[in-house]
Amino acid sequence: MHSDATPVRPNQAARVKDKRRNWLRDTALGMVSTTSFPAIIGTAAAMMKSSNVFLVGYEKTGGGHCTAIVRGGVADVRMAVHAGENTSQQFGQFVSSSLIHRPPENMEAVLPFTARMDELEGAGEMMGGSAIGLLETRGFPAMVGAADAMTKSAEITLLSHETIGGGLCTIIIQGSLSNVAIAVEAGMDAAERIGELSSVRVIPRP
User: Fold this and answer.
1) What predicted TM-score, i.e. pTM, was given to this entire model?
2) pLDDT for 112-126, tens place per residue?
3) Measuring CA to CA, how many Å separate 153 from each of 53, 129, 178, 179?
4) How far is CA 140 from CA 34, 157, 166, 203, in A?
């Protein structure tokens, strides 16, 4: 029986991945570490806006330390790391940075940067241009109280929370810039009343 259907190419996805891997062989990894989750989000945003790099992800290594990891051409990654250093230093929470030219295949196997890039493809589109607010406390009760105050003060959405050790907890919200700003201010008041406020960030267009 004749069919006009376009034949399926089972190896097409594999070829796309091979093409990407060939491109990645000539790229670099850039890393900037801070002592706060809101700071690392702001740092990563600055890195992404400074040059043509991919955000691979974040590593939380305990004791309040977080690292933003980007990948791209060597010149682009160098610019991104420089931007990340400047931003985290402005926050007063810079720890360290590094640039690795053409990471070896064994490093790819142990630290699966390529796989994580695949997972993150298109993630930015989900944000739809909304603002992001991050409020970090030292202690879980203060974070929960801040989240409660934020949701009751403005029209925002709670996205998630992060813990990075050292008692540091971050609540992450999304909404219009004005609503996020109002909510963050309400959350700050609640966090200071209940426990210890550590850090806040509002990112207009992540």
Assistant:
1) 0.74
2) 555 444 444 444 444
3) 36, 21, 12, 8
4) 20, 19, 11, 23
